[in-house]
Amino acid sequence: MKHISCLLLSLLLGLLVSADPKYKELLNLQPLNPASLLASFNFKSNASLQSYEQQHFKYIPRSLGQILQHAKTRELHLRFSTGRWDDESWGARPWGGTKEGGTGVELWAWVEGDSDADSFARWVTLNNALSGLFCASLNFIDSTRSTRPRMTFEPASSVFNASSENLYLLHGSLPREVVCTENLTPFLKLLPCKGKAGIASLLDGHKLFDASWQSMAIDVRSVCPENGSECSIEMEQTVDMVLDVDRSKRPRDNPIPRPIPSEHLQCDQSKPYAGDEACYPSDANLGQSWTLAEIFGRPIQGSCLAEDSYGQLRDSVCINVPHEREVNLYGDAVETKNEAGTSRCFAIPASNPFELVLSHIGPQTFNKVSQPPLYASRSFTGHGQERGGVQTLLTNPSTSSSIQFVYFETLPWFMKPYLHTLTARLTTASTTSPDIIEETFYRPALDRRRGTQLELLISVPADSAVILTYDFDKAILRYTEYPPDANRGFDVAPAVIRLLPSSGNSSSNSQAPLYIRTSSLLLPLPTPDFSMPYNVIILTSTVMALAFGMIFNLLVRRFVGADEVEGWNLAALKAKARGRVAVLVDRVSGKGQKLEKTVQ
Amino acid sequence: MACNPRNAFPGTVYNNADRALDLYGDNIEVDYRGYEVTVENFIRLLTDRLGEDVPRGKRLGSDGGSNVLVYMTGHGGNEFLKFQDSEEIGSWDLADAFEQMWEKKRYNEMLFMIDTCQANTLYKHFYSPNIIATGSSEIDQSSYSHHADNDVGVAVIDRWTYYNLDFLETQVTSPTSKLTLADLFGSYDESKIHSNPGYRWDLFPGGEEKGRERLVMDFFGNVQGVEVEGVGGNETEWREDMRRLEEIIYRARARGNMTGAKKSETPVEEVIAPGRDLGKGRVEGAAKIEGVEAWGQRVLGAGALLGCALIWGGASWLESR
């Protein structure tokens, strides 16, 4: 009997696994503090690997699928991000940092190839094709911006073994790239409902790019279930954004905050200087209550393919607030609350608009944000146009366990680090500690051909901070190599930090990887005076004109000695005048007499 | 750039301080932006001198039947227009690029519009047929901005562009609009534009008379006409087409079966041969750095130093003797 029930159970489990839906979407709303809200959109599409290889596209979009097949790319990760994740007040990153990228555009992929050169050619093809699809300048990822990280990234696909299948990992980033509506448009077009229905209908460029921080991600990987059923290709699209609730609630055509009239001003009476004359504006009701339409500009327009294979509606919106907090709904949705008392989810029927109202209650009705495993901040040191330094502060907030991570940096070729100056020391110690950096992978830069790649395996003891520093030289570029806005500075891509599971804890070995990215840096390079060529032309022309004039003058003028010139005396002048008069008189009188005259 | 951090209205470009019309919209796509906007790229786009990796979205993709609209606006002067505040395109550059387009059959008719100071000088040197050109101001005339939005902090639109847009928004209301270029050019009011717009008709066959009859939607609308050759229908011809289509479908099916059987091969895609000079720029992996504290290296270094000192010492000793 027991055996039969076990069999039944395993059968049921198998059914559940095979009934894995081909398309899923989920919106997770999490108020981080009274003033900001994290909205995580996740869209997951599936197709069997066989149908994908036969170019039978349904939920995997044809436009992207064909590019990947053409460039023989087996796994793709593309990120568009703006802003900075403020981990001091927002805590740990969503998805453990795996779905975010550095500022601008970041791309890494596993590309098939017989050799390095072969895979690089396909990588260039891939970048060009993606630049057309996503309206971004991805074609600028050339050999100077491409690297092959050794430790930082691992394939998310369970199906392949990178070394045995001739797969090459390539990574490139464009920290200068501006992310805007033209990148969101193709992103939404990849979805089955094209952003017209379901949670994607909330995605509006005006709100998304007004967010304090946002990251759009596309991941394509292949998955083979462990029970041996059919392999599938999975595409995951993610949009995470941290909205400033007050800012989002302002009307679109008048977003600039105006002073509040004094009669509407609420004063913070807890301040010692509060009184009748002084008013310190209270932020007690900042972003307290909101509706979806207020924050995103419109309510959710029904659902998109929300029914699973049994015809049951799946949850598509979740909000992480304690159960004490009142959440009102407009539209018929099914609510399920989780047992821990921290979140509730809603299943939305297909056709009706759905609106959610978070009511205004006291400030304590928030889930506490979790502590990030590591704080990282990177900055430039030094001064002057010739050289500088980079300093990274890595803080382990944990009081009990040490932390080990890979620190990965790519530098442009015109920033030339000196590896011998690379030091790591604890903030508490005055001398360098040699055992902090455990392993170093380094590829030096070549002028105009490739950038520097630096990968360090670092461990930080519990409750301490490490300062990593190195010095670098600034190169002088050729006149034509400067961009139009050279005086703004040159962006240096963010460092990527991959946290490794601590070896002491065996259960955490299987956990998903955690990633952290620092902010990008702005490197001022010595820039020439761009009007210099014109000044040079003008100056040279002047000098040449002067020289030519003088030489010409010397060549055409006839020189005579001072003694060869007749004097300038009055008698000669008188004689001449008299001669002229005589000629005139002769002409008039018609005598035709000739007079001799002196030639001067 | 609509998402520049200095824009107080992210993802939005307005044509007017009343902020009624968002020009950036909700589903815009941009093919060239940022540092990609250069004179070189513009001329390459017009003349289709692009590498094979460049995707279709970044090509003009026009042929001998296409009507092309070129609308340029920015800072400029006598016979030039600035790009990115760092380089210029000249009147001759444009004229030669258009001639090359004509030779390559990349347009049927072209409407060239330019809004900059002394704009009418920019189309002075055009010499290719079928071009109608218009500009906002004569030589030695400035083109002015329409008005400024104090919240944005800059002037939002140029005068000539503003009245062109105004005409298109209020008069041209449907894709089937029958308004002609005569209506568009007739709508220009010099007292409002504050400069004298210019027109050039002599390159167009039939001159001004024929040119003025051209519909605005011939250039501004994406109206695609279908040409049916040999009206009445040729029985054998379409049967032949159908037969060919069948063959294509049959071949595609055969391929599909093959890919199903042989997983490693996808014959649909041609194999990309590694480029000639791509090997030069290939990306090499990083190498592991051994510990800086290696004693072997130190001994080697000390040995080399000692050797040099010995040689020097020996040489000076020999010399002193």
TrEMBL record, chain A:
Q: What is this protein's name?
A: Subunit of the glycosylphosphatidylinositol transamidase complex-like protein
Keyword Transmembrane helix listed? The answer is: yes
Task: Name the gene.
Answer: GPI16
Which keywords does this Swiss-Prot/TrEMBL entry list?
A: Membrane, Signal, Transmembrane, Transmembrane helix
GO CC annotations on file: GPI-anchor transamidase complex
Coiled coil located at which positions? none
Q: Which segment of the chain is annotated as a signal peptide?
A: 1-19
Region of interest called Disordered, as start-end residue ranges on this chain = 248-267
Any one Gene Ontology BP term: attachment of GPI anchor to protein
Q: Which organism is it from?
A: Alectoria fallacina
Q: Tell me one Pfam family matched here.
A: Gpi16
Which InterPro entries does this chain map to?
Answer: PIG-T
Q: Where are the transmembrane segments?
A: 534-556
UniProt keyword annotation of tRNA-binding present? no
Automatic annotation (TrEMBL), chain B:
| GO MF, any single term | GPI-anchor transamidase activity
Pfam families, per database record:
Peptidase_C13 (PF01650)
Question: Which example biological process does GO assign this protein?
Answer: GPI anchor biosynthetic process
One cellular component term from this protein's GO annotations in UniProt: GPI-anchor transamidase complex
Q: In which pathway does it act?
A: Glycolipid biosynthesis; glycosylphosphatidylinositol-anchor biosynthesis
Sorted alphabetically, the keyword list is: GPI-anchor biosynthesis, Signal
**InterPro entries from the UniProt entry:** GPI_transamidase, Peptidase_C13
What PANTHER family would the database entry show? Answer: GPI-ANCHOR TRANSAMIDASE
Q: Which family does it belong to?
A: Belongs to the peptidase C13 family.
Quote the protein name from its UniProt record: Glycosylphosphatidylinositol anchor biosynthesis
